[in-house]
Amino acid sequence: MKKTLLIVIVFGLLFGSCKKSNHTPPPTKVTIVGKWQYKKSRSLFMDSQGTILSEDVIMDYTDNDFVKYNADGTGQSMLKGSEVNFTYSLSDSTLTQYTLPRSTGDKPLIFTVFALTVTTFTRHSETFGPGEFRTIRDEDFAKF
Questions:
Q1: Alpha-carbon gap, residue 122 to 114, rounded angstroms
Q2: Exposure check for the chain: N or C terminus, fewer CB within 10 A?
Q3: Which domain of life is it from (predicted)?
Q4: Are the CB atoms for 90 and 74 separated by under 8 Å?
């Protein structure tokens, strides 16, 4: 009886101490760092009263049209063969970019990040021109 009880206890300890491996990989960190391909842009051009004067939607981008954000705060944009280097910072949903080389008095491009996932990114900007004309632009990207 003692021998049977000992065997039951040993087997109980052996099988009871084995845990099933519930190895769940850690979630992928969502970051703007990386190379993003332009997918779609939509621009609205408005007068000072907010009346839409024209709308422009572009979807014919190629693999050569991209924006790249490096971990060190620098970046590069290539759009329709035109290259622009910049520095950037991202705070909450505000993305600030300065075109390089910088000069005294340069104004940054300010974007609002509407969406940022592991594979997609959308940024929004509003700029004002002469006579209070306003341009609203939304750009969609996919990670390379």
A1: 5
A2: N
A3: Bacteria
A4: no
Instruction: Indicate whether 6 pLDDT > 60.
Output: no
> What amino acid is encoded at 11 in this protein?
F
Q: What is the 3-state secondary structure (H, E, C) of the chain?
A: CHHHHHHHHHHHHHHHHCCCCCCCCCCCCCCCCEEEEEEEEEEEEECCCCCEEEEEEECCCCCCCEEEECCCCEEEEEECCEEEEEEEEEECCEEEEEECCCCCCCCCEEEEEEEECCCEEEEEEEEECHHHCEEEEEEEEEEC
Of how many residues is the chain composed?
144
- Average pLDDT of the chain, as a whole number: 88
For residue 6, which phi and psi values (nearest 5 degrees)?
-65, -40
β-strand pairing of 74-79 with 66-69: antiparallel
Question: Which CATH fold would you assign to the domain 35-143?
Answer: Lipocalin (2.40.128)
